[in-house]
Each structure stands twice: as C-alpha cells, then as structure tokens.
Amino acid sequence: MKFLIVNGPNLNLLGKRDPEHYGTFTLADVEEKLKMTASEFDVEVEFFQSNHEGAIIDTIQEASQTFNGIVINPGALTHYSYAIRDAVENCPIPVMEVHISDIHSREDFRRISVIAPACFGQIAGRGIMSYVDGLKALVEKENKNG
C-alpha cells in the first residue's frame, strides 16, 4: 500500500511560523515521523507540499493512479477552496483531512472546513500526531477493504 501526504500553503514554514498554534517541529519532522509510522505498518508514503491551489488539485486528481489514499492538510485553503473540495469529492481513493491545531477552537473563519464533507474523516488539534492518526486510519480502512 502507498499513501500520499499533501500539505498546503505555508506548511513549508512549520518550525518558524506561529509556534503557539503549530509547534516547533518542521515539515521535515512531520515527514520523518510519517516514514517511521509507515514502516511500522509496512506501507509506503510520499510527500507533496505546495503554496499553489492548482498544483494541489492536480496532485489529488493524479493520485488515484498510484496511491491507496491521501492524508491532506490543506492549510488555509481548508476554509474556502471549493476547488480542492471538488477534487477530493471526485477522487476515487479515500482522503483524510488533518490539522495540526484545533481549527474548531480558533478564529471563527478557521472553524469551517469546506473540504471535510468530501473526506473520509478529519483529525485536528493533535499536532504532529494528527498526521500519524490520519495515516493509521487510512491504513486500517484499506486493510478492512482487503
């Protein structure tokens, strides 16, 4: 099994950006943690990060040819990108939305995810573990589907 980890705008700045909400770990730390988790489950992971909505959409559209599922942190696009929502909705593989911070207890505009209804699930507020839990949920789903 192979899973794609997609990170949206500004997540390349993890470790430098607002540590109160996003911690002090870097995107490289996230990737390393997910590589370790993937090896525990004997699955593969690949990573993609972009600050450009269209690149994220293209990646989601192409993913079903190679991957069993997607873990996505759309960053700020979570709250208004109906284009990403449409890409997820039309994606034939499961997509798990994750967030480092608890978007449901932040500013009003951050509490809404237009993408979540198209996803297999959402995990928020667990820091780097949101990614780990998202990957685990997709692996479990795929194992059940055989």
Walk me through the structure:
The chain is built from 5 helices and 5 strands, in the order E-H-H-E-H-E-H-E-E-H. It is of the alpha/beta class and 146 residues long. The chain has a 5-stranded parallel sheet with strand order 2-1-3-4-5, sandwiched between helices. Strand 3, helix 4 (82-89) and strand 4 form a beta-alpha-beta unit. The longest helix has 18 residues, at 128-145. It is globular, with a radius of gyration of 14 Å.
Describe the structure using short key phrases:
globular, Rossmann fold, single chain, 38% helix, alpha/beta, 146 residues
Radius of gyration: 14 Å
Strand order of the largest sheet: 2-1-3-4-5
Shape: globular
CATH topology: Rossmann fold
The SSE string, one letter per element, is EHHEHEHEEH
Low-confidence stretches: none
Can you count the helices? 5
CATH class type: Alpha Beta
* Sheet with most strands: 5 strands, parallel
Q: Assign the CATH architecture.
A: 3-Layer(aba) Sandwich
User: What gap, in angstroms, lies between the N and C termini?
Assistant: 11 Å
Number of domains: 1
Rounded mean pLDDT score: 94
How many strands? Answer: 5
Q: What class do helices, strands and sheet pairing give? A: alpha/beta
CATH H level, superfamily name: Dehydroquinase, class II
Helix content: 25-40%
Strand content is 15-25%
